[in-house]
Design a protein that fits this description.
Blueprint lengths: L18 E2 L2 E2 H7 L3 E2 L3 E7 L4 E4 L2 E4 L4 H10 L1 E2 L2 E10 L6 E12 L2 E16 L2 H7 L5 E6 L3 H16 L9 E7 L2 E6 L2 H15 L1 E13 L2 E12 L6
Parallel strand pairs: 4-10, 11-15
Antiparallel strand pairs: 1-2, 3-7, 5-6, 8-9, 9-10, 11-13, 12-13, 14-15
Helix pairs in contact: 4-5
Length: about 240
């Protein structure tokens, strides 16, 4: 007579398969973490320009796509195949962002479903660009010259509207304004913005443009220069 020994889990006594390395599915999955999801994450958030720091890069916080990609990068997986991730974010509340992470995949031949709630803290700080601006940092000077007071006022409004469109650049700010009888000098955080602004002023008012650079120092062996751009409006230009 042949006796058939019934297979059972040595941990919980269950006889229901499938079995993995001698244990039932539930016990095996309890003792073997195929995926580690932290309970909390912390992300730096600039309180002045509303950017967040992800992977050492400051990005505009416009949606949660970049945060979702960052969270997936932080997950630790072990032998999880055909993994499919879904992240659902809850509304921001008091600098905390809640998220439900759902993961489907195959582990040791077993189909698995993992769900976990996690919390992202947006820690308020000042990004390096905003810190420099607060300290009076500027890379360029925009000089506008004209004997026509009407053109000077129009140019000032033009500059303000232009800078409002540069929302993604925290250095696109006027650090100091100097009014002169025949124009104005604006000290601006970004020399890229100064040059682009000067070109648009030249086109708008049919003016002339000149540039100069001043050596400010060295950084990692590279020369650091401050840009000055002067735009002059001729009287025959359009009103």
């Amino acid at each position: 007579m042949i006796f058939m020994l019934e297979r059972f889990c040595p941990k919980c006594g269950s006889t229901e398969g499938p079995f993995v390395e001698g244990f039932c599915k539930n016990c095996y999955l309890q003792d073997h973490k195929m995926l580690e999801i932290p309970d909390k994450f912390e992300i730096l958030f600039c309180k002045k320009c509303d950017r967040i720091k992800l992977k050492n890069v400051w990005l505009k916080y416009e949606n949660t796509d970049a945060i979702a990609e960052y969270l997936l990068h932080k997950l630790k997986m072990e032998d999880l195949r055909k993994a499919d991730f879904k992240i659902k974010f809850m509304p921001l509340k008091e600098n905390y962002l809640s998220a439900k992470i759902t993961v489907k995949g195959i582990f040791k031949g077993l189909p698995v479903l993992i769900e976990k709630d996690t919390e992202i803290k947006l820690s308020k700080t000042n990004c390096p660009d905003c810190s420099r601006i607060a300290g009076g940092y500027f890379e360029g000077i925009l000089q506008v010259r004209s004997d026509n007071p009407n053109k000077i006022e129009r140019a000032k409004r033009f500059v303000d509207l232009f800078l409002k469109r540069q929302k993604d650049d925290p250095l696109a700010k006027i650090i100091k304004r100097i009014s002169l009888p025949n124009g104005f000098d604006y000290y601006v955080g970004s020399k890229r913005v100064v040059f682009q602004l000067a070109r648009e002023l030249k086109a708008e008012f049919e003016g002339r443009m000149g540039t100069s650079n001043t050596l400010m120092g060295l950084k990692e062996g590279q020369e650091i220069k401050r840009l000055t751009v002067c735009v002059r409006f001729d009287e025959e230009g359009k009103e």
